[in-house]
Write a structure and sequence with these properties.
The chain is α/β, with parallel strands linked by helices. It has 2 domains: about 280 residues, 3-Layer(aba) Sandwich (Alkaline Phosphatase, subunit A); about 110 residues, 2-Layer Sandwich (Gyrase A, domain 2). About 30% of the residues lie in helices and about 20% in strands. It is built from 14 helices and 20 strands. Strands 1, 2, 3, 4, 5, 6, 18, 19 and 20 form a 9-stranded mixed β-sheet that branches. Strand 9 and strand 10 form a beta hairpin. Helix 6 packs antiparallel against helix 7, helix 8 packs parallel to helix 10 and helix 9 packs antiparallel against helix 10. The longest helix has 23 residues. The chain is globular and about 65 Å long.
Amino acid sequence: MDDFSSKRAKHVIVISYDAFSEDNWDFASSLPNLSQLISKGVYSNDLISIYPSLTYVVHSTLVTGVYPDRHEIVHNNPFQPFISEKNQEWFWYRKDINATTIYDAVKEANLTTSAILWPVTGKAKIDYNLPEVVAINGENQAFKILKNGSPFFCAKLSLKYGKVLDGVNQPNLDDFSTLCAVDTIKSKKPNLLLLHLIDLDDTKHNFGTKGTEVNNAMLRMDKRLGSIIKAVDEAGIKKDTAFIVIGDHGHIDIQYKVHLNNILKEMGLIYEDGKIMKWRAYFQCNGGSAYLYIKKDDQEAERLALNEIKEILSVGKYGIEDLYDRTDLDKLHIHKSIKYMLEAKRGYCFDESISNTTIEDLESQRKKYSTHGYRENKDNYKCNLLISGEMIKNNTSLKNLAMVDVAPTIARLLGISFPNCDGKPIEI
């Protein structure tokens, strides 16, 4: 084993490059700033995501080093039947993570922390925190950020760079986040900085996984990386800084969107009672997968729903690839609150809303769309990881990495204790 005492960093900058997957590597790695980091680091196109491969689930694993069955972030959103996605609460708050985070451990070691739009950090004990929270149901966006982040830090950044924003639209949002990160690096020099950039993910959702729009998003990302590298140099901490650039999940192009709750409604397991929608069984959809919830002790609803799903599977309808029960879910590190789960075939995704049609053909509507949430073993679905710095091996490729390995690697780089992980430090 390498002497890790020589691999210590005083500063670690983690850049979550949302949706940066193995199929993006060839183009992205040819760009000037990412290639500069590659030349002074280790990298992998063989990083396995978490199931379900949703942003908040994965990011909770990234900072805890444990699987969802332990940290308990099982979805982007808590279970909220019949509420449209745009009006749903998300797992915005640190209290929702039932595990120690790497930023907790860094702070415990008397080092400084910062997070810029990092998921599930609302009200976290982070020194300089601009959390990823979104106003819903008439809330004020600025007030929600101030309430759940570091108020003076957030206010200062908003005043300096808020004019760049166009609501939460891209690429403006990531441009704002990058300006905030650059400012924080130069003015605060935190020992750990967590930055979440979403431009590529939004682009893939809107335009599919390939094409000019995706390449342009990666060009924008490379410029942002350049700004961050320059900030580290200008702050005088280049020699002591390790960069981690990481994708959280892949994307799959979609032809068919399946409204699973239509099936349950047709069976009477979802119904209207006095103009109020009620359920005996309900699918919470995760894009490429879905959780099946059954009302407590309603054995009849459970039997009916399972029989219907098994019948659909036997005839190959609605793009359902697999039905998982608790035996399967234990092996997949799915939280114990989930009893049944569906996985979608490639080209299909699941949608929670009840629609006029159960299966929607996007291709016939000339709509381009891609999404995630699938099993981590889908073809061409792995993520990219780069760890770069003066203390890291040069231009070395790694294999067989897992998301649970990232937090213990950060801990080892910073020379702090972080026990009880499901993963192990990456050999760098």
